[in-house]
Amino acid sequence: MRRLGTQTLRSFVIRQRQRLRESEIAFILLALAAGLAAGSVTNLLGYAAHAMQRLFYGLSSNRLSALGEIHHPWRLLALPLGGLGLVMFNRLLRKRQRAPIDVVEANALHSGRIPFLDNLVISAQTLISNGAGASVGLEAAYAQMGGGIASQLGKWFKLRRADMRTLVGAGAGAAVGAAFGAPLAGAFYAFEIVIGAYTPASVAPVVAAALGAAFVTRLLGIEPYLIASSADRVLGVGDYALYIVLGLICALVGIGLMRLVTFAEGQAQRMKRLVRWKPVVGGLLLMPLAMISPQTLSSGHGAMHLNLALPPALHVLLIVLVLKIAASAISISFGFRGGLFFASLFLGSLVGLIYATGLAMLPFGVALDLNDAALVGMSALAVTVVGGPMTLAMLMLETTHDFALMGVVLAASLVSGTFTRETFGYSFSTWRLHVRGSIIRSPRDIGWMLSLTAGRLMRKDWTSVSADASVQEFRNSIPLGSTAKAVLVDSQGHYAGVVATAKAYDPQLDPDTPVAALAVLTTNVLTPTTDIRATLKAFDLAAADELAVVDGVGRVVGVVTERHARRRYFEEIEASQRALFGES
């Protein structure tokens, strides 16, 4: 009886999986469930981080970065203590052979599949870092858990590759949207940052997840992220030009920030004796910065609202900007975990305030609204660091409810994003992966390229001849017309080059000539793990139409033709495009 019940349950699960793979409505409902879970986890993580900050810094109602000053300097010991907590946590993970997979990397390389332990590791590290007051945002934990939960659901239901990527993007975007109470921003975060494409097939599930997460935030009574803006304004062509210049300035600041983080990380790695204790050292370095200005602590949301309500003097803004950039670079380069999305919003508001204040001091009679300049700066700098101009445009719209401002926000964001792509080519997340040696430049799916290897493309019915043979022996073993080329191998099967059959039958050749003298491509080979991009590049560099595949010791295991490799490449591209647009 029990066995019958188990079989019935298994059959039911299989039927539901098949239904989910075939039904768009069922997939939308699954995305909605992922969004509800992402919204719940996002609010839980936010509450936990703020509870840690209240405990460490004795906060009452204020946010950490909105403190006017640190009344009890000893509380800043939370920074190195948080670093020590990270060191201890990382020691528990010392047997892991690889770095955790984040959502962008998962969608680009691994078809959206994320080991659930990786989600817990990244979220715990981010929570410790932000809770201790390091200058990093919680968005890394939000997106990771949202996308990770979605990935787990996708694995349970055995979703197809394209559906899995869409679901992971929907979960990550829903989590970020829940943090702001901004479902449209969350949806575009999924499209632009995690999925890498906007397609009709992905709209409904992504929006359903974002709305579900925002519903959880409202249900919990958490106020959405709102910023007051000027209602009475008339924006002319001159204003657009000034804000476009602000977008370019923000792009330069963002690129400088990303390069500074990499430079600081390189310097930190040179501290051989202190590598294990980097987070503790980083916490100690952050303490004097926080003493000068508490606005360097955490991601800076509280400080941003404070500065918008009571704009400081220009010299104060400049000092805070420099300190915040230094704090962000130190935090990330010395091992604290987190993102720069939330911090880039604060930095952008500072750049915007500095820009507008500086313009007002010039004798040209040019003036920009401080609040508007701060909002445009927020979006432009965040686009540089994170990518996704529509994400930031929707975020500004949902947090200000100001349609009139959207034109200049979008213009500055597009200019900032375009300038960054042209001159730098990466967002912060893809730049970090690039520095680690990855080929990822966007969340676009390239996992199929890495799995389409020479080992899968090669044929094994190749013709070989001993490298010690003479031309006459070659002719005796390979009749003219039987094959276009032959692979030369030595006595142990090691590769020694390729000989064209027609060349060996040249009547002007001495039959006693060693056939090895006719060999070409003696150093141009592939390995079974060479991916399709490297394979096609190897064909171009060698100007060959056929290359041998050799194992780790140089023995020939197969042959790949350029024609077959290119045909398979275009077939996979076409299949990927069909899956992207939801075509069967």
UniProtKB/TrEMBL annotation:
Main location: membrane
Membrane topology of this protein: Multi-pass membrane protein
GO cellular component, one term: chloride channel complex
Annotated transmembrane regions: 25-52, 72-89, 167-191, 240-262, 274-292, 313-334, 340-362, 374-397, 403-420
Gene3D superfamilies named among the record's database cross-references: CBS-domain, Clc chloride channel
InterPro entries the record matches: CBS_dom_sf (IPR046342), Cl-channel_core (IPR014743), ClC (IPR001807), ClC-type_chloride_channel (IPR050368)
Domain of life (superkingdom): Bacteria
SUPFAM superfamilies: CBS-domain pair, Clc chloride channel
Molecular function via GO: chloride channel activity
Location within or outside the cell: Membrane
Keywords: Chloride, Chloride channel, Ion channel, Ion transport, Membrane, Transmembrane, Transmembrane helix, Transport
UniProt-recorded name of the protein: Chloride channel protein
Species, as recorded: Novosphingobium silvae
